[in-house]
Amino acid sequence: xxxxxxxxxxxxxxxxxxxxxxxxxxxxxxxxxxxxxxxxxxxxxxxxxxxxxxxxxxxxxxxxxxxxxxxxxxxxxxxxxxxxxxxxxxxxxxxxxxxxxxxxxxxxxxxxxxxxxxxxxxxxxxxxxxxxxxxxxxxxxxxxxxxxxxxxxxxxxxxxxxxxxxxxxxxxxxxxxxxxxxxxxxxxxxxxxxxxxxxxxxxxxxxxxxxxxxxxxxxxxxxxxxxxxxxxxxxxxxxxxxxxxxxxxxxxxxxxxxxxxxxxxxxxxxxxxxxxxxxxxxxxxxxxxxxxxxxxxxxxxxxxxxxxxxxxxxxxxxxxxxxxxxxxxxxxxxxxxxxxxxxxxxxxxxxxxxxxxxxxxxxxxxxxxxxxxxxxxxxxxxxxxxxxxxxxxxxxxxxxxxxxxxxxxxxxxxxxxxxxxxxxxxxxxxxxxxxxxxxxxxxxxxxxxxxxxxxxxxxxxxxxxxxxxxxxxxxxxxxxxxxxxxxxxxxxxxxxxxxxxxxxxxxxxxxxxxxxxxxxxxxxxxxxxxxxxxxxxxxxxxxxxxxxxxxxxxxxxxxxxxxxxxxxxxxxxxxxxxxxxxxxxxxxxxxxxxxxxxxxxxxxxxxxxxxxxxxxxxxxxxxxxxxxxxxxxxxxxxxxxxxxxxxxxxxxxxxxxxx
Length: 659
Known about the structure:
Elements: H1 2-26, H2 31-42, H3 54-74, H4 77-82, H5 84-108, H6 113-124, H7 128-137, H8 144-166, H9 178-213, H10 216-236, H11 241-252, H12 258-283, H13 286-291, H14 293-317, H15 322-331, H16 337-348, H17 354-387, E1 409-412, H18 416-428, E2 432-436, H19 439-446, E3 452-454, H20 460-465, E4 473-476, H21 481-494, E5 499-504, H22 510-516, E6 520-523, H23 524-539, H24 544-556, H25 560-563, H26 575-580, E7 582-588, H27 600-603, H28 605-609, E8 612-618, E9 621-624, E10 637-643, H29 644-654
Parallel strand pairs: 1-2, 1-4, 2-3, 4-5, 5-6
Antiparallel strand pairs: 7-10, 8-9, 8-10
Helix pairs in contact: 1-2, 2-12, 3-11, 3-12, 5-6, 5-8, 5-14, 6-16, 7-8, 8-15, 9-10, 9-11, 10-11, 14-15, 14-17, 15-17, 16-17, 23-24
């Protein structure tokens, strides 16, 4: 009967979750929120379709293990080092200050110190899953506030480890012993280091042996075994299951097995992880919410306000613009999924009471539900606050070396594309000035002599420092669609004749950029398609002038043919006639060519392929109309004539390939 009950519970969960996934996909919201609502609806405080939630909790634990493993898998050591300043300063200060301020607020409202600190820990964490999903959907993961958010979220995920370690010492019935606290931390980190050291050598060797078997089932089962075994081992050391999974992910990150592991584990992770969010919804007590509505609303407002202010202040004092700081602060204003893990552990160990737990759960779920709405209005809100605040301009914006700029190029963003543009302009002698939001990048390249300014391109006064009214071209090489649209409009307002070129990552941004006033929009997705398109046509010996003409037409029409599946414009005009006509192609004979030393009569190219060898280029001389006795020599260049199919066959024959 127990097995039947488990199946019944799963059927109900997935039956309700599927329409929620579809619904939230249609309204462009994360499915995680749908899972939370599904749990509320079917739980013991909703329609009571599920009243026994122990089974769900067990499966949810597996979901947390797989989630932490995949997060660890994404955090290669190299990636952590690249964002070390944001990670340590912004992330560290955010967690520390949020815990301090939250603890003080709770303490002065009459809650004991241990519980106050515990609540501070819960509030300090934000939702990695929800924030990254929303930023990804808005194409803002690579934007300045997206990178800041990612760094802070990574630090929060890492901070869960020491939080889990000190959790037993916050038990309401335990006596505080600072010596014991320090000793436990030292022992825990020593054991943790030993586990990492052993696993770093052992796990890759095990996976190598599994990969050598070339049996997919063996690799998948072996990977799951490694995750669960590492988790169980850390649990046996008095740490946590999730910590072990996180360690396993960190160890395997950056190895040659990462992508295959992702492919095998992600489907299971998504399924089990959905159970985790459903289980949170199951625990949500709607009756408690109605009875303590004012308290819960106060907590929701307090959490969002406190977290937003802390992150905004930290990012702003790291010399980022106020608008970017506000966007990062509002984006991280919710409670995170790992807070629920900590809260459940705290409830089980009597660190907090059931009433405190319900109050936390009610307010936290609503901060998650409100996140999409907050992120939707955050660009407008950030602009409103910024425009009413005292502007902070670059101290060297008025440097004399910028005063003589005229007919120059303004480069907005100094990432890989921006650097490549600057290098080409520098070599061709064209004047340019760079506008960048990252203060570290500005400092680094200004010391190298670059004409680079710190500032936000969505501000009129900042654009004016680039001498925008005298500029000829402005290039946007940033990954922030919303900011780009605002900056295009502002640039056109200041200089209507400026030629505006925009680089975008995704095709759905093209029309919006053109409407904003861009003269040319270059989507990376379509440029990749054009590169493939060109290479394929070259392989089939389509004349180069035809390829160039067609690619220019596609670019001139703003990629309309590629963006619109129903477009009736032919891709290549008279392609069938082009393929039927003759063409001339050259073939270079390498030193290792097996046909070197053979004469044309032996190869019998014309009879076998239909193509004709009309000339040889040898030692700077041309041999025209060669006879059948002419021998092919190494380093010859052979000139072949025929239609496309015949030339292809001739080249394959010369390569000693089948055709």
